[in-house]
């Protein structure tokens, strides 16, 4: 009598924890995860504190951490560090409005395996998560290009050029342009243009890194840009900054 073939059991779904303060984005991610038979929705947190409390609790260990960087009470980097420290098998995936090289590199150093810009977020984040669990390191093309450019610059000169934005002719700011940014946002933008890192800006301004990130997030939105170089270029075009070589 021939032996009966048995179908091997399906592997258990990957558990996903989402840390995102925007309710619509969080609901979008939850719906995508719940539709996928290969994933299990573990929960959603709205802040660093909620996420850390979740990680410190007795809940199921997450296989995937989907996390935003700009959270109301701090940086998602702290959540990434805490998650990989407690659960070494957890694979963090950042999805954020920040597209500059410093944010990407800091996320990778903290333990992230992928980085997706919110403007380029896939319609089905579950597929991206499954690809990451299969060995991929998802990263938005626009961000990958900037990181590669930063790497080449470091290789060729030993350090990044603070004014790496394309050359443009500055003009006198209009009244609308002058009122576009708050005083603090203007100060942060000026320090960005001079090549200072988030940590250095925070120290110079007497602020936390999270507060600096919040100012940057706001000025990115006002200038309709996604990176430091784009912010500097647009601010110069509007007359909000002058090239350091200008008299």
TrEMBL record:
Q: Which domain of life is it from?
A: Bacteria
SUPFAM superfamilies documented for this protein: C-terminal effector domain of the bipartite response regulators, CheY-like
Cross-referenced Gene3D superfamilies, in alphabetical order? 3.40.50.2300, Winged helix-like DNA-binding domain superfamily/Winged helix DNA-binding domain
- Residues with the modification 4-aspartylphosphate, per the entry, are 68
**Chain ranges of the Response regulatory domain:** 15-133
Which keywords does this Swiss-Prot/TrEMBL entry list? DNA-binding, Phosphoprotein, Transcription, Transcription regulation
Q: Which residues form the HTH luxR-type domain?
A: 174-239
Pfam families (alphabetical)? GerE, Response_reg
What InterPro entries does this protein map onto? CheY-like_superfamily (IPR011006), NreC/VraR/RcsB-like_REC (IPR058245), Sig_transdc_resp-reg_C-effctor (IPR016032), Sig_transdc_resp-reg_receiver (IPR001789), Tscrpt_reg_LuxR_C (IPR000792), WalR-like (IPR039420), WH-like_DNA-bd_sf (IPR036388)
Protein name listed in UniProt: Response regulator transcription factor
Q: Which organism is it from?
A: Variovorax rhizosphaerae
